[in-house]
Amino acid sequence: MISVIVSRVTEDGLFIEGEEPSSVMNIEPESRIIPIRGLYYKIKVAMINNGILVTGSAHMSFKSLCDNCLAEFELKIANENICHLYEKTDACEIDLTEDVREDILISLPHRLLCKKNCKGLCFNCGQNLNLKKCSCPKQKNKDLVWEELNKLKL
Ligand SMILES: [Zn+2]
Ligand SMILES: [Zn+2]
């Protein structure tokens, strides 16, 4: 649990850093992403006028399969812009775990790619084109095909 003891928070801010076990992420075992390390966080907690402000960063690494070439790769997710405001409370402790967990989840890309310019698999022979070229005749890429379709419409 990532938590803050309210009485320790000052206006100058309290720095907290640590690592939580990956189980706090509640990721299903059959998910597209499997945690390979814990959830690391580094945050500043400060008392402001009417609340408690939490800012900082969190990161975590996952094992995943590339959507493009299907190879396994390490997916590193970082959120450097954590920012949460909590109302002043009578409780002596605030639990930040759920919010930091969401900060990681919202940073996941829609497409999981092993690298930005992943070449993917050949549609024809299935060769992983990141590893080597295949000898299939060159296929037109999608954009070119659309361009030609547009010309036809004109
Ligand atoms: Zn790939
Ligand atoms: Zn091929």
Give the gist of this structure.
This protein has 154 residues and is mostly beta strands. Helices cover 14% and strands 37% of the residues. Strands 2, 3, 4, 5 and 6 form a five-stranded antiparallel β-sheet that branches. The protein has a two-stranded antiparallel ribbon with strand order 1-7.
Strand element count: 7
Distance between the termini: 61 Å
Structural class: mainly beta
Number of helices: 2
Largest sheet: 5 strands, antiparallel
Average pLDDT: 90
Query: Rg to the nearest angstrom?
Result: 23 Å
The level of helicity is 10-25%
| Low-confidence parts | none
User: Strand portion, in percent?
Assistant: 35-45%
Which molecules are bound besides the chains? zinc ion
What is the ordering of alpha helices and beta strands?
EEEEEEEHH
Morphology call: elongated
Task: Give the count of structural domains.
Answer: 2
What can you tell me about this protein's structure?
This protein has 154 residues and is mainly β. The protein folds into two domains: 3-116, no CATH class; 119-154, no CATH class. It has helices at 97-105, 142-153, and strands spanning 3-5, 14-20, 33-35, 39-48, 51-65, 72-87, 93-95. The strands form two sheets. Strands 2, 3, 4, 5 and 6 form a five-stranded antiparallel beta sheet that branches. Strands 1-7 form a two-stranded antiparallel sheet. The model has no long low-confidence stretch (mean pLDDT 90). Bound molecules: zinc ion (2 copies). Residues 66, 68-69, 71, 113-114, 118 line the site of one zinc ion.
